[in-house]
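Tokens in:
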């Protein structure tokens, strides 16, 4: 980035480290999958931390577990509306759905019963399940947002049962290895920052423990680095490689619940925190464990993301820091539009493009990258994108027609005659009498 931009980013980071008295902190800005800038302040073992220094991710771990669950959904092994009992039978909260667990609307207690799990050695799944035999549901499932670390311990068990291995082994094989995230581990390896609590009234630090969380590990066990977390930040923005379909990630970023009412500055999707700031919507997650704070956010519209890792229990406004890094980068160096260039398309689909009419309302159907269609009104109306779903079928990805199927009607000679979209019939001319218009077309036709 420009030297002036890099200095502005470093100054914001340095101010946070100094004012909040953070032993060490690292941060970065990514755009379109590239690590554009990284910075560090403070010390780890007497030296400045770098992009390969491990810090604990805390609840950012949940985002990786959520992707494992969505992969199972995309493979047809589960549905998001399935009750938990269909996949992990025998719990006292089996009526909560997979989607509700992902979005923290399943009504589960926030923390596992007994000693505070973040500072205690964790037991296995049987012990966790037994501890939740009574009073596990605090709210009616689906009624409201209630953040639940327990819910992600449960989702880790769900992944393990479907894969026939531990959630960690599934994570390594399905996500970490394909994305090259070799420095993301359940326990620290190589150079790492020690976790500290900073005395509130003196410049003193106290080491924090970092035990294995056992069955609660999916809620916050992982350690990582700037380099690996930058790759994950780009992943959340849509750079998913072969690990997840981009439209599935977009589904995860969609709002499932809002946790601050009418203000709607923060909400939750399927495993992702959502933040609204100055007209933009960011997606990612924060994380905290004793001795550590972390945050990653990205704006999918600009492709710009920010991330930060610190080794302190409390103090810095790490989410605000990350949001400020994104804002500074986009304001000082706004993203340039991608250069347009011709690309090869399935020529047989060209016959479907052009002008269609829903009743008297004109729409344009355009081919867009990925073999997808964009259906948009010429003036006002409902617009959606569609991806291929089968012969002459496309699945709606967003807008009013999200999840709906667009089907092509053809004449006996194969000529496209109409589009059928959720019972709405689109024709080449307004109310084409030869098409199956619901209610038919007046025999007298158009007249003055």
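Residues out:
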């Amino acid at each position: 980035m420009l030297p002036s931009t890099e200095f502005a980013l470093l100054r914001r980071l340095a101010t946070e480290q100094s004012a909040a008295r953070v032993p060490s902190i690292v941060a970065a800005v990514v755009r379109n999958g590239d690590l554009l800038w990284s910075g560090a302040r403070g010390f780890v073992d007497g030296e400045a931390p770098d992009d390969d220094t491990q810090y604990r991710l805390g609840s950012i771990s949940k985002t990786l577990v959520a992707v494992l669950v969505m992969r199972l959904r995309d493979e047809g092994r589960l549905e998001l509306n399935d009750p938990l009992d269909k996949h992990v039978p025998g719990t006292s909260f089996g009526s909560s759905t997979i989607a509700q667990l992902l979005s923290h609307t399943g009504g589960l207690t926030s923390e596992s019963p007994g000693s505070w799990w973040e500072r205690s050695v964790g037991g296995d799944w049987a012990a966790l399940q037994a501890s939740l035999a009574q009073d596990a549901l605090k709210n009616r499932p689906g009624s409201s947002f209630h953040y639940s670390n327990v819910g992600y311990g449960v989702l880790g068990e769900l992944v393990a049962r479907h894969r026939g291995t531990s959630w960690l082994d599934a994570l390594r094989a399905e996500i970490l290895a394909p994305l090259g995230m070799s420095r993301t581990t359940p326990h620290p390896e190589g150079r790492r920052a020690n976790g500290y609590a900073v005395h509130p009234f003196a410049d003193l630090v106290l080491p924090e423990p970092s035990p294995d969380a056992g069955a609660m590990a999916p809620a916050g066990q992982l350690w990582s680095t700037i380099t690996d977390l930058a790759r994950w930040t780009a992943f959340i923005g849509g750079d998913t490689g072969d690990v997840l379909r981009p439209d599935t990630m977009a589904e995860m970023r969609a709002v499932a619940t809002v946790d601050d009412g009418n203000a709607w500055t923060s909400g939750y999707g399927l495993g992702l925190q959502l933040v609204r700031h100055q007209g933009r919507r960011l997606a990612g997650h924060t994380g905290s464990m004793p001795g550590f704070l972390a945050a990653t956010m990205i704006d999918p519209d600009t492709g710009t993301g920010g991330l930060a890792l610190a080794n302190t229990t409390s103090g810095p406004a790490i989410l605000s820091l990350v949001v400020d890094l994104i804002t500074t980068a986009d304001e000082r160096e706004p993203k340039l539009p991608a250069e347009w260039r011709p690309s090869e398309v399935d020529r047989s689909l060209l016959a479907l493009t052009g002008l269609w009419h829903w009743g008297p309302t004109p729409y344009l159907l355009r081919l867009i990258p990925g073999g997808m269609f964009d259906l948009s009104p010429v003036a006002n109306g409902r617009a959606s994108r569609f991806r291929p779903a089968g012969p002459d079928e496309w699945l709606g990805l967003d807008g009013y027609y999200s999840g709906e199927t667009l089907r092509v009607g053809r004449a006996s000679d194969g000529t496209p005659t109409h589009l059928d979209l959720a019972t709405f019939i689109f024709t080449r001319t307004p109310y084409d009498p030869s098409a199956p218009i619901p209610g038919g077309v007046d025999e007298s036709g158009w007249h003055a």
